Amino acid sequence: MTPSAKQRAAKKKPAKKAAPPRKAAEPAPAPRHAGAKARAPEATKQDIIDVATREFAQNGLSGARVDEIAAKTGSSKRMIYYYFGDKDGLYLAVLEEAYRKVRTTEAQLDLEHLRPTDALKKLVEFTFDHHHSNEAFIRLVMIENIHHGEYLARSKTIQDLNVSAIGELERVYQRGLQDGIFRKGLNAIELHWQISALAFFNVSNRATFSQIFRVDLTSKKAVASLRSQVVDMVLRNVLKHPG
């Protein structure tokens, strides 16, 4: 006896539905070296800023590549944009960090407990030493001048940091006036300009000067001599009766 159509249908089992394909997991950023542990967000951001500082200082805003920064930090372009918005945002973060470092260290000089002449001398020496040891900072400032200070103007952080630096110098100058050892007619912004100019030029133009005049201005002896002269020039300009 042949089975009826009803019996044949009862023996058939319903076909199972195919499971939806699994989505591939998004790859995590590659660690900087084998076995490296995942870094905290703040550590990652700082690492990106450190590498970006070197890239922007070396290649400028237009020449630096976010892909290169991502590769050197073991992160991704997407992650950099997540933290900083875009390339301009990263560049501005680099500028802010550069100024924050110099002003934070400068604020620890404890100038208020020194005599005005000693305080001014210490401030000039600090500025000279900082610039000499931080060529990337000098190059970043030069690059920002090429952009006519456009990015600095966007940053209230940098403006506030530099206002505090001028305030500290103004207090030193006023103490010197009260003690009768500094001459009248100066202001803190112009004095800051003079100190910065002398320390800045020592780094920004040392390569060209060394080549033009066939002298090594990067030697320890040359740097020590220039440092001493810069301090002497500033003090002679400010002292009421330079010795």
TrEMBL record:
DNA-binding region: 65-84
PROSITE patterns found in the cross-reference section: HTH_TETR_2
InterPro entries found in the cross-reference section: Homeodomain-like_sf (IPR009057), HTH-type_TetR-like_transc_reg (IPR050109), HTH_TetR (IPR001647), NicS_C (IPR041474), Tet_transcr_reg_TetR-rel_C_sf (IPR036271)
UniProt-annotated stretches for the region Disordered: 1-44
TM spans (from-to): none
A molecular-function term among this protein's GO annotations: DNA binding
Annotated coiled-coil segments of the chain: none
Compositional bias annotation for Basic residues: 8-20
HTH tetR-type domain ranges (all copies): 42-102
Organism superkingdom: Bacteria
UniProtKB keywords: DNA-binding
PANTHER family given in the database record: HTH-TYPE TRANSCRIPTIONAL REPRESSOR SCO4008, TRANSCRIPTIONAL REPRESSOR
Protein name: TetR/AcrR family transcriptional regulator
Organism name: Ferrovibrio terrae
Phylogenetic lineage: Bacteria, Pseudomonadati, Pseudomonadota, Alphaproteobacteria, Rhodospirillales
